[in-house]
Amino acid sequence: MLSYLFFVVVFLLSILFVMVGVAFLTLLERSVLGYIHIRSGPNKVGFVGVLQPFSDAISLFSSEQYFPLVSNYLVYYFSPVFGLFLSLLVWLLIPYLSGFISFELGLLFFLACTSLGVYTVMVAGWSSNSGYSLLGGLRALAQTISYEVSLAFILISFVILICSYNLVYFYLFQFYIW
């Protein structure tokens, strides 16, 4: 029981760190783009813009909601939530040094989670009940599938090399190569 609680706490902390890391990577990207365009970047809030991601989050959550009249309301709003859940679920597969969690078929779980992301794009385009959104969703669907097929072929070549689907073995195999 205690190990399950420990697992949940570690997973939630890692998800929290990932989301804060993404916020600060966005800050870095906006700052670099500001220097490239020869303009001041997002340095308005706090020292050198350190509080800018938190200001953006507050602005995002306090903005006015848009409610399309003819959309399938629940499906329209829960498909991005499901996509976020799937992308955060992939972070379970990180091979920790302590061997805390180890999937024997971790690579197949990764491919399954990323493949389910295709449905969130398709359902988001379909549920808005707009022809343009549906066409945009189908275009994004085709592009996502084409990227996933090439990614799967690349990962299968590593599976043939390592002879395992476990991502811990992928980590251990790197000791023998540059």
TrEMBL record:
The keyword Transport applies. It is a multi-pass membrane protein. The keyword Transmembrane helix applies. It is found in: Membrane; Mitochondrion inner membrane. Keywords: Membrane, Mitochondrion, NAD, Transmembrane, Transmembrane helix, Transport, Ubiquinone. Its main location: membrane. Its EC number is 7.1.1.2. GO terms for molecular function: NADH dehydrogenase (ubiquinone) activity; NADH dehydrogenase activity. The chain crosses the membrane at residues 6-25, 74-94, 106-127, 147-172. Pfam families: NADHdh. It catalyses: a ubiquinone + NADH + 5 H(+)(in) = a ubiquinol + NAD(+) + 4 H(+)(out). One of its GO terms (biological process) is aerobic respiration. One of its GO terms (cellular component) is mitochondrial inner membrane. Belongs to the complex I subunit 1 family. This is NADH-ubiquinone oxidoreductase chain 1.
